[in-house]
Design brief:
This protein has 135 residues and is of the alpha+beta class. The protein has two helices and seven strands, in the order ααβββββββ. A five-stranded antiparallel β-sheet has the order 6-5-4-1-7.
């Protein structure tokens, strides 16, 4: 792994540590919180939140898994340990993006915050709304 990749991972890990201190331990506890509703009324909720100046978390982006099954890994490369699998259509929270190992010509990987911190190949995640920030 190159020095640049290691540096990117170290920067992302530091950002995660700072974010973990500043955010609640468990996200999505409140079933009445409209910011957590990404079901059938997703577009309507996005519009309502934008009109009210609210969002789920301005530091996070959203994405939808497009692969039938996507390995989420411990590092932004195919050699990273598989943390878990995401299924097609699953909506994921994206903390940031970085360049890693190329997957079918796409070098970008997203750091996901859904329950565990894991990397997913951007080639198989379609973003919802603005592009994720760089790590």
């Amino acid at each position: 792994m190159s020095l640049r990749s290691r540096l990117s991972i170290a920067v992302a890990a530091g950002a995660l540590a700072v974010t973990a201190l500043a955010t609640p331990a468990v996200a999505g506890d409140d079933p009445d919180d409209p910011r957590d509703d990404w079901g059938q009324n997703q577009t309507q909720n996005q519009t309502q939140n934008q009109n009210q100046g609210q969002d789920h978390n301005p530091r996070l982006s959203r994405g939808v898994v497009t692969a039938s099954s996507l390995a989420l890994r411990s590092a932004p490369n195919r050699g990273g340990q598989i943390i878990r699998w995401a299924d097609r259509g699953e909506v994921v929270s994206i903390f940031c993006r970085t360049n890693g190992q190329s997957v079918q010509g796409n070098r970008q990987w997203y750091l996901l915050t859904d329950g565990t911190w894991a990397w997913g190949a951007a080639r198989y995640i379609r973003t919802i709304g603005p592009a994720p920030r760089w790590c």
